[in-house]
Amino acid sequence: MNTSAALQIAAKVAQLTELCTTFQAKFGKRFAFTPESPAEAYELHRAICDKQADIAELLDPESLHNPMKKASEWWRWQNTMDMATAGELARETNHLIASCAYAEAAPPEDGPSHAVAAAQEAIAGMLHPEVRDRVLAQALSMA
Q: Hey, where are the domains in the chain?
């Protein structure tokens, strides 16, 4: 992980925030999918999942394997990530950018930056576990 990759994650998180906000504005925070749900709700939900996958693909695979349980597990009570979780994800992404920039300016003497690893694990922990698992399986199959 480096600052350039962290900035790419930030751009994806901004796009995810837009999608989550649009979903919540149109369908509410705790929208429950039914067979009668509008097609747009399903389309936005898929876009939100796909954007989470884009973010996961930019993380080091180790972070997907060891996600940090820093934030609440939103998927236990709602189908789609909400604005608050997207905001927390943005804050953690800013921490990742800062940690990468610091590690690049003053490389740790004892190996990879622990702050960079922890920030990635926190980001991974906010992504839906099915998305994380799918991306991790793809990464391992390509290794």
A: 3-142
Residue 89 token pair: 């994800």
CA-based max dimension of the chain: 58
pLDDT surpassing 80 at residue 63? yes
Which two tokens mark 97? 């950018």
Q: Of the candidates 68, 67, 65, 73, which has an alpha carbon nearest to the alpha carbon of residue 136?
A: 65
Distance from C-alpha of 137 to C-alpha of 64, rounded to nearest angstrom:
10
Predicted confidence (pLDDT) per residue in 71-84, tens digit = 789 999 899 999 99
Instruction: Give the model confidence (pLDDT) of 47-58 as tens digits.
Output: 999 999 999 999
Q: What CA–CA distance (Å, rounded) separates 122 from 142?
A: 24
Write the single-letter amino acid at 103: A
Please state the separation of Cα 18 from the chain's center in Å. Answer: 14
Instruction: Give the Cα separation of 133 and 88 in Å (integer).
Output: 21
CA 6 to chain centre: 12
Alpha-helical (H) ranges within the chain are 3-27, 39-58, 61-65, 83-105, 114-126, 129-142
